[in-house]
Amino acid sequence: MEVTMTKSVFGHLKTGEEVTLYRFTNTTGAYVEILNYGGIVKKVMVPDKEKTLVDVAVGFDDLQRYEQLDCPPGAVVSMSGCQDRTAFAHALWEEVECSNNAVTFFRRFRCEPDGGDLDVFIRYLWVDYERLVLDIAARCDRETEVNLTSNCLFRLDHGDDLSAHEWRTFGEWEETTEGTLIPIEETPFGNNVFTPAVLGEKRFFVAKSAEIRPLAEVISPVSELSLSAYSDICGIALEVTEDPEPGVRLQQMFSAVSGKEQTLLKPGEEWKHRIIFGFDRIYKG
Q1: Residue 178: which of 249, 261, 258 has the closest Cα?
Q2: Sequence-ordered list of residues with C-beta below 8 angstroms from that of 2, at least 6 positions apart, any chain
Q3: With 0-12 CB in 10 A as exposed, 13-18 as middle and 19+ as buried, what is 119?
Q4: Distance in angstroms (rounded) separating the CA atoms of residues 166 and 77
Q5: Which residue of 98, 103, 145, 262 could cross-link 80, Cys pair, CB 3.0 to 4.6 Å?
């Protein structure tokens, strides 16, 4: 059985423009659904402990719900003040390449305050072992800040209950809202231990290296599912929220303080990074 792709019409925007849904199914039957609107990850269906496919991504079947939100779940967003965050989340991306297990989109954006052009390519890749890969590449014609990431929101249990979720980080520091770096051993997350994911909690962690590596993991002993976040971006924000739906957000992104050098893009250069979400089973001993 090969990885397969199907395309269908998801709906039409208020402007009348057509939105396409891409479904990628791997050899285990697990699949993801991607929209060319916002580059949104609409659905991630993976097997639970009963080997039943369950959706672990927060998404909607109604296109209007995505249009109504400033920053809908699953969209590609800009965390830099030089670009309009909502412009990314609501962009209708142009398909430039599509295969059985991947799709590449392109879009040109305007940057503030100088009005330069930012050309962005995003590629989604769905592979066996339930790995969703997002590659982002950007080029500009004027110096600007680039800090692009995914706004995916996940929940590993059925329904809206997040009480069983736990998380841990593999970063070396926790960064405070003031920009101070605290060694991870001096926080509750030292020694890679799992701690309860509490509603309303938001933390930011920084890793030493800029190579692809695990940054954080979320588990639920109830569903026995695990979600791991990898990237060559050396920062990750973890958040438990109810906005717009209950879920856990893992955003691989550069810190506005400690990662500022990594967000500066000059003409002739390319800002290129990879984000990976891995979905696995955990086993009780």
Answers
A1: 258
A2: 27, 100
A3: middle
A4: 25
A5: 145
Convert 189-231 into a string of H (helix), E (strand) and C (coil).
CHHHCCEECCCCCEEEEECCCCCCEEEEEEEECCCCEEEEEEE
CATH architecture under which domain 4-281 falls:
Distorted Sandwich (2.70)
Most distant pair of Cα atoms in the chain: their distance: 57
User: For residue range 240-281, what is the model confidence (pLDDT) as tens digits?
Assistant: 999 999 999 999 998 866 666 788 899 999 999 999 999 999
Tens of pLDDT, residues 26-81? 988 999 999 999 999 999 999 988 889 999 999 999 999 999 999 999 999 998 86
How do the domains of the chain map onto residue ranges? Answer: 4-281
Average pLDDT for the chain = 92
Closest of 242, 247, 236 to residue 157, by C-alpha:
247
User: Of 49, 21, 18, which is closest to residue 34 (Cα–Cα)?
Assistant: 21
